Amino acid sequence: MSKPTSGGFEKTPGWLDWYTGPSKPQFQLPPNAVDAHCHVFGPGAEFPYAPERKYTPCDASKQQLFALRDHLGFTKNVIVQATCHGADNRALVDALKSSNGKAKGVATVKRGVTDSELQEMHAAGVRGVRFNFVKRLVDFTPKDELLEIAGRIAPLGWHVVIYFEAVDLPELWDFFTALPTTVVVDHMGRPDVSKPIDGPEFELFLKFMREHENVWCKATCPERLSLAGPPALNGERNAYRDVVPFARKVVESFPDRVIWGTDWPHPNLKNHMPDDGLLVDFIPHIATTRELQQKLLVDNPNRLYWPQEGGA
Ligand code: 0GY
Predict the structure, then answer these.
(1) Domain count, the chain
(2) How many whole angstroms from 82 Cα to the centroid of ligand 1?
Protein backbone atom coordinates (compact mmCIF):
# COMPACT_ATOMS: atom_id res chain seq x y z
CA MET A 1 0.00 0.00 0.00
CA SER A 2 1.19 3.53 -0.71
CA LYS A 3 2.38 5.93 1.98
CA PRO A 4 -0.33 7.85 3.87
CA THR A 5 -0.76 11.63 3.51
CA SER A 6 -3.25 14.04 5.11
CA GLY A 7 -4.72 15.76 2.03
CA GLY A 8 -3.37 19.25 2.73
CA PHE A 9 -4.06 19.09 6.47
CA GLU A 10 -1.15 19.04 8.91
CA LYS A 11 -1.04 15.73 10.72
CA THR A 12 -0.87 15.90 14.53
CA PRO A 13 2.81 15.83 15.58
CA GLY A 14 3.92 12.49 17.03
CA TRP A 15 1.05 10.65 15.38
CA LEU A 16 2.32 7.52 13.68
CA ASP A 17 1.35 6.62 10.11
CA TRP A 18 -0.48 3.36 9.64
CA TYR A 19 1.57 0.36 8.65
CA THR A 20 1.84 0.05 4.86
CA GLY A 21 3.19 -3.50 4.70
CA PRO A 22 1.05 -5.66 6.98
CA SER A 23 2.12 -9.29 7.15
CA LYS A 24 -0.10 -12.16 6.08
CA PRO A 25 -1.69 -13.59 9.23
CA GLN A 26 -0.87 -17.18 10.15
CA PHE A 27 -4.36 -17.54 11.59
CA GLN A 28 -6.80 -18.29 8.80
CA LEU A 29 -10.04 -16.39 9.27
CA PRO A 30 -13.28 -18.37 8.80
CA PRO A 31 -15.41 -17.62 5.71
CA ASN A 32 -17.60 -14.51 6.03
CA ALA A 33 -15.50 -12.99 8.85
CA VAL A 34 -16.19 -9.35 9.72
CA ASP A 35 -13.67 -6.68 10.71
CA ALA A 36 -16.21 -5.02 12.98
CA HIS A 37 -14.25 -1.94 14.04
CA CYS A 38 -12.29 0.12 11.54
CA HIS A 39 -12.34 3.63 10.15
CA VAL A 40 -11.89 5.68 6.99
CA PHE A 41 -10.10 9.04 7.28
CA GLY A 42 -10.80 11.47 4.47
CA PRO A 43 -8.99 11.66 2.18
CA GLY A 44 -8.80 15.16 3.63
CA ALA A 45 -8.77 16.82 0.21
CA GLU A 46 -12.16 15.25 -0.59
CA PHE A 47 -13.74 14.88 2.86
CA PRO A 48 -12.21 17.60 5.09
CA TYR A 49 -11.56 16.86 8.75
CA ALA A 50 -13.98 18.48 11.23
CA PRO A 51 -13.06 21.89 12.68
CA GLU A 52 -13.79 20.63 16.22
CA ARG A 53 -11.43 17.60 15.91
CA LYS A 54 -8.85 16.90 18.61
CA TYR A 55 -6.33 15.37 16.20
CA THR A 56 -5.56 15.33 12.49
CA PRO A 57 -4.90 11.83 11.19
CA CYS A 58 -3.16 10.71 8.04
CA ASP A 59 -5.60 9.85 5.28
CA ALA A 60 -6.93 6.29 5.21
CA SER A 61 -9.17 5.81 2.19
CA LYS A 62 -11.93 3.32 1.44
CA GLN A 63 -9.73 1.70 -1.25
CA GLN A 64 -6.93 1.19 1.27
CA LEU A 65 -9.38 -0.23 3.81
CA PHE A 66 -10.88 -2.66 1.30
CA ALA A 67 -7.39 -3.73 0.19
CA LEU A 68 -6.51 -4.48 3.82
CA ARG A 69 -9.76 -6.45 4.24
CA ASP A 70 -8.82 -8.67 1.30
CA HIS A 71 -5.18 -9.01 2.37
CA LEU A 72 -6.10 -10.17 5.88
CA GLY A 73 -8.89 -12.48 4.70
CA PHE A 74 -11.95 -10.67 6.03
CA THR A 75 -15.14 -10.62 3.94
CA LYS A 76 -16.80 -7.53 5.42
CA ASN A 77 -16.18 -4.34 7.40
CA VAL A 78 -18.03 -2.31 9.97
CA ILE A 79 -16.77 1.24 9.54
CA VAL A 80 -17.08 3.41 12.64
CA GLN A 81 -17.20 7.20 12.45
CA ALA A 82 -14.11 8.61 14.14
CA THR A 83 -14.03 11.90 16.05
CA CYS A 84 -11.73 13.60 13.52
CA HIS A 85 -14.75 13.77 11.17
CA GLY A 86 -17.13 14.99 13.91
CA ALA A 87 -20.76 14.52 12.86
CA ASP A 88 -19.93 14.87 9.16
CA ASN A 89 -20.51 11.32 7.98
CA ARG A 90 -19.81 11.89 4.26
CA ALA A 91 -16.58 9.89 4.09
CA LEU A 92 -18.24 7.01 5.96
CA VAL A 93 -21.36 7.00 3.77
CA ASP A 94 -19.25 7.22 0.61
CA ALA A 95 -17.24 4.18 1.71
CA LEU A 96 -20.41 2.22 2.53
CA LYS A 97 -21.91 3.00 -0.86
CA SER A 98 -18.73 1.81 -2.60
CA SER A 99 -18.55 -1.46 -0.71
CA ASN A 100 -21.07 -3.55 -2.71
CA GLY A 101 -22.91 -4.31 0.51
CA LYS A 102 -19.75 -5.57 2.19
CA ALA A 103 -19.61 -2.72 4.72
CA LYS A 104 -22.03 -1.40 7.32
CA GLY A 105 -21.47 1.72 9.37
CA VAL A 106 -21.78 3.44 12.72
CA ALA A 107 -22.31 7.21 12.46
CA THR A 108 -22.10 10.21 14.74
CA VAL A 109 -25.15 12.46 14.69
CA LYS A 110 -26.30 15.57 16.49
CA ARG A 111 -29.72 16.44 17.85
CA GLY A 112 -30.54 18.42 14.67
CA VAL A 113 -30.28 15.41 12.34
CA THR A 114 -33.42 15.11 10.21
CA ASP A 115 -35.47 11.97 9.64
CA SER A 116 -34.62 12.03 5.96
CA GLU A 117 -30.88 12.24 6.77
CA LEU A 118 -31.28 9.21 9.03
CA GLN A 119 -33.17 7.38 6.28
CA GLU A 120 -30.44 8.20 3.77
CA MET A 121 -27.78 6.87 6.12
CA HIS A 122 -29.85 3.75 6.70
CA ALA A 123 -30.10 3.14 2.96
CA ALA A 124 -26.31 3.45 2.70
CA GLY A 125 -25.80 0.84 5.44
CA VAL A 126 -25.54 2.76 8.72
CA ARG A 127 -26.83 0.63 11.59
CA GLY A 128 -25.75 2.51 14.69
CA VAL A 129 -24.61 5.74 16.31
CA ARG A 130 -21.54 6.23 18.45
CA PHE A 131 -21.52 8.10 21.77
CA ASN A 132 -17.97 8.95 22.77
CA PHE A 133 -17.06 9.79 26.39
CA VAL A 134 -13.27 9.69 26.07
CA LYS A 135 -12.36 13.20 27.20
CA ARG A 136 -9.20 13.56 25.09
CA LEU A 137 -11.30 12.91 21.95
CA VAL A 138 -14.49 14.94 22.30
CA ASP A 139 -16.21 17.87 23.99
CA PHE A 140 -19.04 17.07 26.38
CA THR A 141 -22.52 16.41 24.92
CA PRO A 142 -25.47 16.67 27.34
CA LYS A 143 -27.00 13.31 28.23
CA ASP A 144 -30.52 14.48 27.37
CA GLU A 145 -29.35 15.14 23.80
CA LEU A 146 -27.86 11.65 23.57
CA LEU A 147 -31.01 10.04 25.00
CA GLU A 148 -33.09 11.95 22.46
CA ILE A 149 -30.85 10.65 19.65
CA ALA A 150 -31.08 7.10 21.00
CA GLY A 151 -34.89 7.40 20.98
CA ARG A 152 -34.81 8.59 17.37
CA ILE A 153 -32.58 5.79 16.05
CA ALA A 154 -34.19 2.92 18.02
CA PRO A 155 -37.17 2.57 15.62
CA LEU A 156 -34.72 2.11 12.74
CA GLY A 157 -33.36 -0.98 14.48
CA TRP A 158 -30.00 0.76 15.04
CA HIS A 159 -27.84 0.31 18.11
CA VAL A 160 -25.61 2.61 20.18
CA VAL A 161 -21.85 2.16 20.34
CA ILE A 162 -20.28 3.60 23.49
CA TYR A 163 -16.63 4.48 24.01
CA PHE A 164 -15.41 5.31 27.52
CA GLU A 165 -12.53 4.78 29.97
CA ALA A 166 -12.94 2.12 32.68
CA VAL A 167 -12.69 4.66 35.51
CA ASP A 168 -15.73 6.50 34.15
CA LEU A 169 -18.10 3.51 34.13
CA PRO A 170 -19.59 4.12 37.62
CA GLU A 171 -20.58 7.67 36.69
CA LEU A 172 -21.97 6.61 33.30
CA TRP A 173 -23.76 3.47 34.52
CA ASP A 174 -27.24 4.98 34.90
CA PHE A 175 -27.08 6.62 31.50
CA PHE A 176 -25.87 3.46 29.76
CA THR A 177 -28.47 1.26 31.41
CA ALA A 178 -31.25 3.67 30.36
CA LEU A 179 -30.44 3.29 26.64
CA PRO A 180 -33.37 1.68 24.78
CA THR A 181 -31.31 -0.20 22.16
CA THR A 182 -28.61 -2.80 21.87
CA VAL A 183 -25.45 -1.21 23.27
CA VAL A 184 -21.99 -2.13 21.95
CA VAL A 185 -18.94 -1.26 24.07
CA ASP A 186 -15.74 -0.26 22.29
CA HIS A 187 -12.49 -1.95 23.32
CA MET A 188 -13.89 -3.74 26.42
CA GLY A 189 -14.44 -0.42 28.18
CA ARG A 190 -10.68 0.23 28.06
CA PRO A 191 -9.54 -1.81 31.09
CA ASP A 192 -6.29 -0.86 32.79
CA VAL A 193 -4.53 -4.19 32.18
CA SER A 194 -1.91 -3.45 34.86
CA LYS A 195 -4.71 -3.95 37.41
CA PRO A 196 -5.86 -7.42 38.49
CA ILE A 197 -8.42 -9.04 36.22
CA ASP A 198 -10.55 -9.89 39.28
CA GLY A 199 -10.19 -6.37 40.73
CA PRO A 200 -13.17 -4.03 41.22
CA GLU A 201 -12.74 -2.10 37.97
CA PHE A 202 -12.94 -4.98 35.49
CA GLU A 203 -15.41 -6.80 37.74
CA LEU A 204 -17.76 -3.82 37.38
CA PHE A 205 -17.50 -4.07 33.60
CA LEU A 206 -18.29 -7.81 33.67
CA LYS A 207 -21.25 -7.08 35.96
CA PHE A 208 -22.44 -4.44 33.48
CA MET A 209 -22.49 -7.10 30.75
CA ARG A 210 -23.83 -9.86 32.98
CA GLU A 211 -26.79 -7.82 34.23
CA HIS A 212 -27.71 -6.27 30.87
CA GLU A 213 -28.31 -8.69 28.03
CA ASN A 214 -28.59 -5.85 25.52
CA VAL A 215 -24.89 -5.02 26.08
CA TRP A 216 -22.34 -6.35 23.59
CA CYS A 217 -18.60 -5.81 23.57
CA LYS A 218 -15.74 -5.43 21.11
CA ALA A 219 -12.81 -7.56 22.31
CA THR A 220 -10.54 -5.16 20.46
CA CYS A 221 -7.48 -2.96 20.63
CA PRO A 222 -4.81 -5.01 22.41
CA GLU A 223 -2.29 -2.62 20.83
CA ARG A 224 -3.99 0.32 22.58
CA LEU A 225 -4.47 -1.36 25.94
CA SER A 226 -1.20 -3.28 26.24
CA LEU A 227 1.63 -2.12 28.46
CA ALA A 228 3.75 -5.10 27.36
CA GLY A 229 3.55 -3.92 23.75
CA PRO A 230 4.25 -5.71 20.50
CA PRO A 231 6.36 -8.85 20.27
CA ALA A 232 10.11 -8.67 20.64
CA LEU A 233 12.07 -8.69 17.42
CA ASN A 234 12.51 -12.44 17.54
CA GLY A 235 9.90 -13.29 15.00
CA GLU A 236 7.42 -14.42 17.62
CA ARG A 237 3.82 -13.58 16.71
CA ASN A 238 2.21 -13.75 20.15
CA ALA A 239 1.96 -10.03 20.89
CA TYR A 240 0.18 -8.00 23.59
CA ARG A 241 0.07 -10.86 26.09
CA ASP A 242 -1.04 -8.72 29.04
CA VAL A 243 -4.37 -8.06 27.28
CA VAL A 244 -5.08 -11.75 26.61
CA PRO A 245 -6.66 -12.64 30.01
CA PHE A 246 -9.05 -9.68 29.83
CA ALA A 247 -10.15 -10.30 26.25
CA ARG A 248 -10.40 -14.04 26.81
CA LYS A 249 -12.55 -13.54 29.89
CA VAL A 250 -15.00 -11.43 27.89
CA VAL A 251 -15.09 -13.82 24.92
CA GLU A 252 -15.64 -16.87 27.12
CA SER A 253 -18.18 -15.23 29.45
CA PHE A 254 -20.33 -13.68 26.70
CA PRO A 255 -19.66 -15.75 23.57
CA ASP A 256 -22.84 -14.58 21.82
CA ARG A 257 -22.29 -10.86 22.45
CA VAL A 258 -18.70 -10.24 21.39
CA ILE A 259 -17.28 -8.97 18.09
CA TRP A 260 -13.77 -8.18 16.88
CA GLY A 261 -12.08 -5.60 14.67
CA THR A 262 -8.66 -4.30 13.68
CA ASP A 263 -9.25 -0.61 14.55
CA TRP A 264 -7.32 0.21 11.36
CA PRO A 265 -5.86 2.82 10.77
CA HIS A 266 -5.22 2.98 14.52
CA PRO A 267 -5.70 6.67 15.35
CA ASN A 268 -3.69 8.37 18.09
CA LEU A 269 -0.97 5.79 18.49
CA LYS A 270 2.36 7.37 19.36
CA ASN A 271 4.57 4.54 20.61
CA HIS A 272 4.17 1.86 18.01
CA MET A 273 1.93 1.11 15.07
CA PRO A 274 0.66 -2.47 14.90
CA ASP A 275 1.12 -4.84 12.02
CA ASP A 276 -2.51 -5.78 11.22
CA GLY A 277 -1.44 -9.31 10.30
CA LEU A 278 -0.13 -9.73 13.85
CA LEU A 279 -3.36 -8.37 15.27
CA VAL A 280 -5.26 -11.13 13.44
CA ASP A 281 -2.86 -13.65 14.95
CA PHE A 282 -3.94 -12.35 18.38
CA ILE A 283 -7.45 -13.75 17.81
CA PRO A 284 -6.81 -17.46 18.56
CA HIS A 285 -5.27 -16.45 21.91
CA ILE A 286 -8.53 -14.86 23.02
CA ALA A 287 -11.01 -17.15 21.20
CA THR A 288 -9.36 -20.49 21.68
CA THR A 289 -11.81 -22.83 19.97
CA ARG A 290 -13.25 -22.96 16.47
CA GLU A 291 -16.70 -22.46 17.95
CA LEU A 292 -15.70 -19.26 19.81
CA GLN A 293 -13.90 -17.95 16.73
CA GLN A 294 -16.96 -18.58 14.57
CA LYS A 295 -19.17 -16.63 16.99
CA LEU A 296 -16.72 -13.74 17.47
CA LEU A 297 -15.82 -13.24 13.83
CA VAL A 298 -18.84 -14.49 11.86
CA ASP A 299 -22.08 -15.28 13.66
CA ASN A 300 -22.28 -12.35 16.07
CA PRO A 301 -21.26 -9.46 13.76
CA ASN A 302 -23.42 -10.82 10.93
CA ARG A 303 -26.40 -11.14 13.28
CA LEU A 304 -25.94 -7.53 14.38
CA TYR A 305 -25.16 -5.93 11.00
CA TRP A 306 -26.45 -8.28 8.28
CA PRO A 307 -29.51 -9.92 9.91
CA GLN A 308 -31.37 -10.06 6.59
CA GLU A 309 -28.72 -12.46 5.30
CA GLY A 310 -29.74 -14.85 8.05
CA GLY A 311 -26.91 -13.81 10.39
CA ALA A 312 -23.90 -15.58 8.95
C1 0GY B 1 -10.59 4.09 18.10
C2 0GY B 1 -9.90 4.74 19.20
C3 0GY B 1 -9.58 6.04 19.33
C4 0GY B 1 -10.08 7.11 18.52
C5 0GY B 1 -11.34 7.23 18.11
O6 0GY B 1 -13.09 8.33 17.12
C7 0GY B 1 -11.90 8.39 17.42
O8 0GY B 1 -11.20 9.36 17.18
O9 0GY B 1 -12.20 6.25 18.31
C10 0GY B 1 -8.68 6.44 20.42
O11 0GY B 1 -7.97 7.45 20.28
O12 0GY B 1 -8.63 5.74 21.46
O13 0GY B 1 -11.46 3.26 18.31
O14 0GY B 1 -10.31 4.42 16.97
Answers:
(1) 1
(2) 6
